[in-house]
Design goal:
With 413 residues, the chain is α+β, with helices and mostly antiparallel strands. It is built from 19 helices and 10 strands.
């Protein structure tokens, strides 16, 4: 008798197909008997499920396929009532459903039976609840920051692709950084070329002096803007018209989102500053406050991964290939892991290889040395650096040490 069958003799297994308002459940008892039921997404529904599963106080293990965030409530409730919760992957469910039923057709009851099959085969992973593991607040900061950044980017694209291109297209060349908040304040004060050229050049410079903040050669910048406004091809709309009012509405919205993002960055840094893993991650070249926030939010406790290869698999940086007979394809990234983690390490790698002296830049230079102009080779080089950075991040957090700078560069050779 296998270990898995011994477990089944002593435990009640519950498979859930997660939905928004109610979940489909298939319950298998130690005797082999199965029942199906609908579980309302309410505390009463959860209580009824637990009563049906524990007539003899057996241990309960619950499996489900993550669906948006709808599984989080019932998983937390069940874990608080001494149930073991497990995740099954969407890919495993799809393949198992096709194998068991010989069709791609699906319904809730069928999906619950597929989850039950995967549980009985041991093809699942433990569910680490963010609220219980203590990273719930970190995840919420990261998710909120992500949503604010997306909204800000959409608003910025709307500003430059519509409003600015109509009223003052030449001003866009002065927007040289997405963090240039002075530009938004300036456009609120001077939304059109006419709002600038109605003053003499000296008067305009005085009025805009404090708005643009601290700048190198500020006088030259403002004179350049004034001369650009004189040659603008923007539409001659009145500065007190409805069109400019709507333009300013979008400018105000963009400015508010920019301020919210900056405030959230400061809040995240102060909230995480006492965490050792956060401090260790920030010592890696290319990883700042926000990327470290994303890594912790998506990874949880990195030390729970016993080997760095497990962490690379979790990120989706593991290599895979297709082999059949004498035919074998080239290795490529599986991309079966956490896409936001890959994105975080990709951003960190891109930042690190732009710096002057670190081992990540050195690895990238070695990777592309055969043909630096080959864009596909450069892309693969960045991916290799991102995978190395994930490996280094896991090692630093697990060992509780800071990143040591590249030996040759650190000794000035």
């Amino acid at each position: 008798m296998t270990y898995e069958s011994n477990i089944n003799k002593k435990q009640v297994t519950v498979a859930l197909d997660i939905a928004k308002k109610s979940h489909d459940a298939v319950v298998e008892f130690p005797t082999g008997k199965r029942i199906s039921m609908k579980v309302a997404n309410t505390s009463e529904g959860y209580r009824l499920l637990l009563e049906r599963c524990r007539p003899e106080h057996h241990q309960i293990r619950v499996g489900f396929e993550p669906t948006a965030d709808y599984h989080r409530n019932i998983a937390y409730w069940l874990s608080q009532h001494d149930c073991e919760c497990f995740l099954v992957s969407s890919l495993s469910s799809a393949r198992a459903r096709e194998m068991l039923y010989g069709t791609w057709d699906k319904n809730d009851r069928k999906d619950a039976n597929v989850v039950l099959y995967l549980l009985n085969q041991g093809l699942m992973q433990p569910f680490h609840d963010p609220l219980i593991s203590g990273i719930f607040d970190v995840q919420e900061i990261s998710n909120t920051y992500h949503q604010i950044t997306l909204a800000r980017t959409r608003c910025m694209n709307s500003l430059f692709n519509h409003y600015v291109s109509l009223y003052f297209p030449e001003i866009e060349r002065f927007f040289n950084s997405t963090r240039a908040s002075w530009f938004c304040r300036f456009m609120l004060k001077f939304p059109t070329p006419a709002s600038i050229t109605r003053y003499r050049q000296e008067t305009f410079v005085k009025r805009a002096w404090d708005i643009v903040g601290r700048k190198v050669e500020k006088q030259r910048l403002l004179i350049d803007i004034y001369q650009t406004a004189q040659q603008s091809v923007g539409l001659p709309v009145p500065t007190d018209g409805i069109a400019i009012e709507t333009f300013k509405l979008q400018l105000n919205r963009f400015y508010e989102l920019d301020q919210q993002r900056a405030a959230l960055e400061q809040r995240a840094d102060s909230f995480l500053s006492s965490r050792p893993d956060y401090q260790h991650l920030k010592t890696i070249p290319g990883i700042g406050s926000i990327i470290a926030l994303m890594i912790i939010a998506e990874s949880g406790d990195l030390s729970r991964f016993g080997h760095y290869r497990q962490y690379l698999n979790y990120c989706g940086f593991n290599l895979s290939t297709i082999q059949s007979g004498n035919r074998k394809n080239q290795y490529h990234l599986s991309k079966r892991g956490n896409s936001r983690l890959r994105y975080a390490f990709w951003l960190a790698a891109t930042s690190a290889i732009r710096q002057r002296e670190n081992s990540f830049r050195e690895k990238f230079q070695r990777y592309i040395s055969k043909d630096p102009s080959n864009k596909d080779l450069c892309r693969k080089g960045r991916t290799a650096v991102a995978a190395k950075m994930a490996r280094v991040a896991h090692a630093l957090v697990k060992s509780g040490t800071d990143y040591q700078s590249f030996y040759e560069f650190s000794h000035g050779t």
